[in-house]
Amino acid sequence: MSQDTTRQQTVCNAVQLKDFDTRSARIVMSPVGRIPERTAGLAGTARTGSVLIVLFSDAARLHVILIKRRDNLRHHPGQISFPGGRREKCEDALTCALRETREEIGIEPDSLIIVGPLEPTYIIASDFCIDPFVAWLPGIPGCIPDPREVDAIYTVPLAHLCAPGAREYRQKNILGTQRSVPGFLLYGHHIWGATAMLLHETIERLKAAGWRE
After folding, report:
1. How do 177-186 and 189-191 pair as beta strands?
2. Which of 72, 86, 169, 206 is deepest in the core (most CB within 10 A)?
3. pTM for the complete prediction?
4. For residue 44, what pLDDT band results from cuts at 50, 70 and 90?
């Protein structure tokens, strides 16, 4: 069995783990010290969207694809995130994740192997309920950023996010309150919020499935 195939199987095993403690894996990187939940008193319903956690392997390491959002976007400007966005009418969660990935970074749905979903997560600041999916990309990606939404695309070795000094607390304004928020450091950027929570969960799932940095 090739190293690439072995890593793909590890990813599949990680997503399909039974009795994995998702809550504990996410709360470590929660910006509010708990699992974010929608306040009962909020009017209407939360907006819905999806993200795709795209993993691939080169000769040496397992990587994840992240994007830097443009600074002029209405929601989460300038932040590091997974490809993804708001769900359109009559669109299911997975279709949304694949469409947004194609639009934002140019990866076609038929080039991906869908591994499976993770539990939804809620973003307090933008009142978004996000459905995350994990996908495996055979080979090395040829990404093309959408200049209207994406400033940069990063193919990040997961081991980089596990290295000593890869995490840091920074002050963030969350709904008018200053908080010390945990996050991952990447090329001078601070990855925090839902993206950091899902990254940490992905890493912990992989470790539980036998992945070694």
Report:
1. antiparallel
2. 206
3. 0.92
4. low
